[in-house]
Model the fold of this input.
Amino acid sequence: MWPFIINTNMLSVANFTVQNSLPENENECYLFEYNDIPKDEAPQETRTIAHRGYSSVAPENTIPAYYAAAENGFTTAECDIEWTKDGIPILLHDNTLNRTAGVPAFWTKLYCENMTYDEILQYDVGKIYGKEYEGTRVPTFYELLDCCKQTGLNLYVEIKNSSLFDEKKAKLLTDAVKEAGLEDKITWISFNSNYLKTIANMMPEARLGYLYQKNVTLETIDTLKSLQTGKNEVFLDIKSSKIDANGDKLLDNAGFKFEAWTIDNISEFDRIQKYECYGITTNSITQEQMDEHNK
Done:
């Protein structure tokens, strides 16, 4: 620590200790000692994002999974967007129905892009989770927006790299969000930075997360900068094992925050939290568990 003089009219950050008695005249100077405290006024609460809804208790990317997320204390959930043959945005992680519908791939490949939504509705994506979820169908993006309005959930929308995303699809999604009045509740994420730019062209204030599964480099920073519109927040959404001290420094120096995926144990959260992670995508850790751990 080291002493110095500072005019109180210029004081804006309270990371100092007063070393002399306070003068009566507000224009006089104080002797302070700098304590080398981080500039942030308070620790950032880490956001927990329910991966594909609360997918550890309900079928992933289904409406029951998002209600389960809200009921178990999540304020934010993530979904995946794929597209049907007739241009309907649906919630689906894979580009086929085989895994979630329990149909062996060696029988036939059920590519959603080759099926109409009515055809997709013929498949039950809940039965493999048990009798409680039998009859669950693949929902549309519009149904999920209705669910978010009812539950208050914030939503991370992943635009899949396999979806051949274009301006027409971007307009369908952003128009739906605007019509639902949920612009401030939506974060758009993708491994494809061009898809995110397409969203930003439609909605310049959209919050964007660039999905990433490599170590951070200067090229990563350049990509993040290319997503900035001057009106939006941009962050890196990185695979948790790929964040390290060097990457954290590069991000911090460039003014970008990061969130991490997919974290299902507290020990991994503790490892990355030393780098000030602002959010984690998880299948199982709830906000309540996180808060209890941080006490």
